[in-house]
């Protein structure tokens, strides 16, 4: 019985790639140094899977930034602004597309389906001259082969690549991206031919868009693409991999009808209903790569349950044609539980990170082949039973409070227009008020202070003194820049979710449980293992301290319940909405304590509300109902004069704008600049928004510093569709990933642009 891994984490067990990338970007190391770190990581990953007994090991799953950007490079689809003149795409062009450079902005970045991973969105049009411009897939296959590992090269499938793209600037929005299929397939054929010549016997095409709601025209594109590729693929075993949700009956029928395809990879964790389709109709002689080990979470697999599912499938597809696999790439989980030295043994026994999931996959494959490791299965069963019965998982008081939420929609008593009037009387802000999203640069010194405090190398008094000094520096800078509503810069926080999780019950934390979010940016998601409550105030001391340093309004900074949920590894033993309601009640307590402490502006970030939206439209309404309700629970008890802000970033918001309005926040700041201001189109189309809104005026994920004129131009575009009295001026997102040398001039230009527009508006009256 064979085993397969869809993909694997890239950063390394201790974020080796992250540090190598940042050193290269800062010009502290060479391209050769970066390539050496990457090669060592790839080698260790292939060896680990080979040693574990995995038969189908992926190559080209590694990326220096993002796998979709890798496909863009392979196809030579470089937007003209980067000045690429042909030939093999090097790091300069590649990273300029990802991060921008001193003269041109980066390409748009958005969420990868409903995960917290981000991809770089291809910009395409009828005039793109595609060419084979990156041989990475072939090079990595050869690299693995030279190490004695015969891998399965992984490519983003041609149809998914186009469906995940967008029309380039200046191209009609109605342009059919699928019309480019005949132009990109010749390059795919070149890559396939080179892989065959190099000795590849299998190839994996990731076509995750098959799980979306696709019309017949889009489904037909899959049929057309693989019809065209059939002769080139001859002699290769071809795996089409799907993940993240169920396939519709129509998509499943399309998938199993594709020509030249040997195997189908299905997510049987998030796509459990796909099982019924397989049982009712699976093509004879084809392979099923059964994704029964969860690639999106960190809970140990219920091996007995998975083995039972696999035996059912074995009866349908045949013993020789069933391959045990992960549900999706392990990119979305932490690397190795072995590196966790501070988790207690009970919780640790409930978990499996990527390295452990590889072992689970192989253990299931061996069990199916009659070589069951009884001790391994027995230990797994004991851990499953321990988790179900552990008293630390359940808190009756929390469950009772959450149950009592039913029957109310938890809206504030006064409408937003009246609240904004009351808030303006209290805050006395100018038109086009300026603010930032929350965090300021996290300097090496600041990180050292936090690290030493956690390691008990400095006293609590010394830690508090250092953080207060950092807050004072941030407050003074904002006053010097003449920003209207201030933030304290969040120097006490390494991560916006981790910080709150550490202070809430029902959460556990890792030392090295890092997961890639984009590029070199890694997050360490908390683990929600039990019922959630707030034992004591979490932010009141720091917010009150910051407010005491200025007469200007100081925002209290919180992470919202939906974002905490979506950016955590969530317990899978109860519905997600129940956990979310518990978190909402904990944040509600914090909001009310901040208000009592004299904080008049409170921001409750819901950066991840959109990314949790189910992939199928039939499930949208239920999710949005409980997600928006959870947000309203957090602030339903505050006074009219307390201004509630929220923040969202890096997703497509246009399709949920009415739910955003239904959140009933007083002010929303929202990503806008990196996505070519497509957010504004929803207002051009007639949606009326009466609350305060701050579409981001510049992209903070790029080191580029926008000019005053550029920002003023963006504000003018906003004023064309939004009322002057509701518009705020702010960056796209928090500033923690930037350097002060970038932040100061960018914010200075932002404030100057706001003042310029105020003067122009006043003179126009």
From TrEMBL:
<feature type="binding site">
    <location>
        <position position="18"/>
    </location>
    <ligand>
        <name>5-methyltetrahydropteroyltri-L-glutamate</name>
    </ligand>
</feature>
<dbReference type="Pfam" id="PF01717">
    <property type="entry name" value="Meth_synt_2"/>
</dbReference>
<comment type="similarity">
    <text>Belongs to the vitamin-B12 independent methionine synthase family.</text>
</comment>
<feature type="binding site">
    <location>
        <position position="605"/>
    </location>
    <ligand>
        <name>L-methionine</name>
    </ligand>
</feature>
<feature type="binding site">
    <location>
        <position position="649"/>
    </location>
    <ligand>
        <name>Zn(2+) 1</name>
    </ligand>
</feature>
<dbReference type="InterPro" id="IPR013215">
    <property type="entry name" value="Cbl-indep_Met_Synth_N"/>
</dbReference>
<feature type="binding site">
    <location>
        <begin position="521"/>
        <end position="522"/>
    </location>
    <ligand>
        <name>5-methyltetrahydropteroyltri-L-glutamate</name>
    </ligand>
</feature>
<dbReference type="InterPro" id="IPR002629">
    <property type="entry name" value="Met_Synth_C/arc"/>
</dbReference>
<feature type="binding site">
    <location>
        <position position="662"/>
    </location>
    <ligand>
        <name>Zn(2+) 2</name>
    </ligand>
</feature>
<feature type="binding site">
    <location>
        <begin position="437"/>
        <end position="439"/>
    </location>
    <ligand>
        <name>L-methionine</name>
    </ligand>
</feature>
<keyword id="KW-0479">Metal-binding</keyword>
<keyword id="KW-0489">Methyltransferase</keyword>
<keyword id="KW-0862">Zinc</keyword>
<feature type="binding site">
    <location>
        <position position="567"/>
    </location>
    <ligand>
        <name>5-methyltetrahydropteroyltri-L-glutamate</name>
    </ligand>
</feature>
<feature type="domain" description="Cobalamin-independent methionine synthase MetE N-terminal">
    <location>
        <begin position="3"/>
        <end position="316"/>
    </location>
</feature>
<dbReference type="InterPro" id="IPR006276">
    <property type="entry name" value="Cobalamin-indep_Met_synthase"/>
</dbReference>
<comment type="pathway">
    <text>Amino-acid biosynthesis; L-methionine biosynthesis via de novo pathway; L-methionine from L-homocysteine (MetE route): step 1/1.</text>
</comment>
<protein>
    <recommendedName>
        <fullName>5-methyltetrahydropteroyltriglutamate--homocysteine S-methyltransferase</fullName>
        <ecNumber>2.1.1.14</ecNumber>
    </recommendedName>
</protein>
<feature type="binding site">
    <location>
        <position position="490"/>
    </location>
    <ligand>
        <name>L-methionine</name>
    </ligand>
</feature>
<keyword id="KW-0028">Amino-acid biosynthesis</keyword>
<keyword id="KW-0808">Transferase</keyword>
<dbReference type="Pfam" id="PF08267">
    <property type="entry name" value="Meth_synt_1"/>
</dbReference>
<dbReference type="GO" id="GO:0008705">
    <property type="term" value="F:methionine synthase activity"/>
</dbReference>
<feature type="domain" description="Cobalamin-independent methionine synthase MetE C-terminal/archaeal">
    <location>
        <begin position="432"/>
        <end position="755"/>
    </location>
</feature>
<dbReference type="GO" id="GO:0003871">
    <property type="term" value="F:5-methyltetrahydropteroyltriglutamate-homocysteine S-methyltransferase activity"/>
</dbReference>
<dbReference type="GO" id="GO:0008270">
    <property type="term" value="F:zinc ion binding"/>
</dbReference>
<dbReference type="InterPro" id="IPR038071">
    <property type="entry name" value="UROD/MetE-like_sf"/>
</dbReference>
<feature type="binding site">
    <location>
        <position position="116"/>
    </location>
    <ligand>
        <name>5-methyltetrahydropteroyltri-L-glutamate</name>
    </ligand>
</feature>
<feature type="binding site">
    <location>
        <position position="733"/>
    </location>
    <ligand>
        <name>Zn(2+) 1</name>
    </ligand>
</feature>
<comment type="function">
    <text>Catalyzes the transfer of a methyl group from 5-methyltetrahydrofolate to homocysteine resulting in methionine formation.</text>
</comment>
<feature type="binding site">
    <location>
        <position position="647"/>
    </location>
    <ligand>
        <name>Zn(2+) 1</name>
    </ligand>
</feature>
<feature type="binding site">
    <location>
        <position position="658"/>
    </location>
    <ligand>
        <name>Zn(2+) 2</name>
    </ligand>
</feature>
<feature type="active site" description="Proton donor">
    <location>
        <position position="701"/>
    </location>
</feature>
<dbReference type="GO" id="GO:0032259">
    <property type="term" value="P:methylation"/>
</dbReference>
<feature type="binding site">
    <location>
        <position position="671"/>
    </location>
    <ligand>
        <name>Zn(2+) 1</name>
    </ligand>
</feature>
<keyword id="KW-0486">Methionine biosynthesis</keyword>
């Amino acid at each position: 019985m064979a085993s397969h891994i869809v993909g694997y984490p890239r950063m390394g067990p201790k974020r080796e790639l992250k540090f190598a990338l940042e050193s290269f970007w800062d010009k502290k190391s060479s391209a050769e140094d970066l390539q050496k770190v990457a090669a060592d990581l790839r080698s260790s990953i292939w060896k680990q899977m080979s040693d574990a007994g995995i038969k189908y090991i992926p190559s080209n799953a590694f990326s220096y930034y993002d796998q979709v950007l890798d496909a863009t490079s392979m196809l030579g689809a470089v937007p003209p602004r980067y000045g690429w003149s042909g030939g093999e795409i090097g790091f300069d062009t590649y990273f300029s597309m990802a991060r921008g450079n001193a003269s041109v902005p980066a390409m748009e970045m958005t969420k990868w389906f409903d995960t917290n991973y981000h991809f770089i969105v291809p910009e395409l049009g009828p005039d793109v001259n595609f060419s084979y411009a990156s041989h990475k897939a072939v090079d990595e296959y050869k690299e693995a082969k030279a190490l004695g590992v015969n891998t399965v090269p992984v490519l983003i499938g041609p149809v998914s690549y186009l469906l995940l793209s967008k029309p380039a600037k200046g191209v009609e929005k109605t342009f059919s991206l699928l019309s480019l299929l005949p132009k990109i397939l010749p390059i795919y054929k070149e890559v396939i031919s080179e892989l065959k010549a190099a000795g590849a016997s299998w190839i994996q095409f990731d076509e995750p868009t098959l799980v979306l709601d696709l019309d017949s025209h889009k489904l037909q594109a899959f049929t057309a693409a693989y019809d065209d590729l059939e002769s080139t693929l001859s002699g290769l075993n071809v795996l089409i991999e799907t993940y993240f949700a169920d396939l519709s009956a129509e998509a499943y029928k399309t998938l199993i009808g594709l020509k030249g395809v040997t195997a189908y990879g299905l997510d049987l964790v998030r796509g459990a209903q796909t099982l019924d389709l397989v049982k009712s109709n699976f093509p004879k002689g084809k392979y099923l790569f059964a994704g029964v080990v969860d690639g999106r979470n960190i809970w140990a697999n219920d091996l007995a349950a998975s083995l039972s599912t696999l035996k059912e499938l074995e009866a349908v597809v045949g013993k020789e044609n069933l391959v045990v696999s992960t549900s999706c790439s392990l990119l979305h989980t932490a690397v190795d539980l072995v590196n966790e030295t501070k988790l207690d043994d009970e919780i640790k026994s409930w978990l499996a990170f990527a390295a452990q999931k590889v072992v689970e996959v192989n253990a299931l494959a061996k069990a199916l082949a009659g070589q069951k490791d009884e001790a391994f299965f027995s230990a797994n069963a004991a851990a499953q039973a321990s988790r179900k019965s552990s008293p630390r998982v359940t808190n009756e008081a929390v469950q009772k409070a959450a149950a009592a939420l039913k029957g109310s929609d938890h809206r504030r008593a006064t409408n937003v227009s009246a609240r904004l009037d009351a808030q303006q009387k209290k805050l006395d802000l100018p038109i086009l008020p300026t603010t930032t999203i929350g965090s300021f640069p996290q300097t090496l010194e600041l990180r050292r202070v936090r690290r030493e405090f956690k390691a008990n190398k400095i006293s609590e008094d010394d830690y508090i003194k250092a953080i207060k000094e950092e807050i004072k520096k941030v407050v003074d800078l904002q006053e010097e820049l003449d920003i209207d509503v201030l933030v304290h810069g969040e120097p006490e926080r390494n991560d916006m979710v981790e910080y709150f999780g550490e202070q809430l019950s029902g959460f556990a934390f890792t030392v090295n449980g890092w997961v890639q979010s984009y590029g070199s940016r890694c997050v360490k998601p908390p683990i929600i293992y039990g019922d959630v409550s707030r034992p004591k105030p979490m932010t009141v001391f720091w917010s009150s301290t910051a407010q005491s340093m200025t007469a200007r309004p100081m925002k209290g900074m919180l992470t919202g319940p939906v974002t905490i949920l979506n950016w955590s590894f969530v317990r899978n033993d109860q519905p997600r909405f129940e956990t979310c309601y518990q978190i909402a009640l904990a944040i509600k307590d914090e909001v009310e304590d901040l208000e009592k402490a004299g904080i008049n502006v409170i921001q409750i970030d819901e950066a991840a509300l959109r990314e949790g939206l189910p992939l199928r439209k039939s499930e949208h309404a239920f999710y949005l109902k409980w997600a928006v309700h959870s947000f309203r629970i957090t602030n339903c008890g505050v006074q009219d004069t307390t201004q509630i802000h929220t923040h969202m970033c890096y997703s497509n918001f246009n399709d949920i704008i009415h739910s955003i309005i239904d959140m009933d926040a007083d002010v929303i700041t929202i990503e806008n600049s990196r996505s070519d201001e497509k957010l504004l189109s929803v207002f051009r189309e007639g949606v009326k928004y009466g609350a305060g809104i701050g579409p981001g005026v510049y992209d903070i994920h790029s080191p580029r510093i926008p000019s005053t004129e550029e920002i003023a131009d963006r504000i003018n575009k906003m004023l064309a569709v939004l009322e002057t009295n509701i518009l705020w001026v702010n960056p796209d997102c928090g500033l923690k990933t930037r350097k002060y040398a970038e932040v100061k001039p960018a914010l200075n230009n932002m404030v100057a642009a706001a003042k310029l527009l105020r003067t122009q508006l006043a003179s126009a009256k």
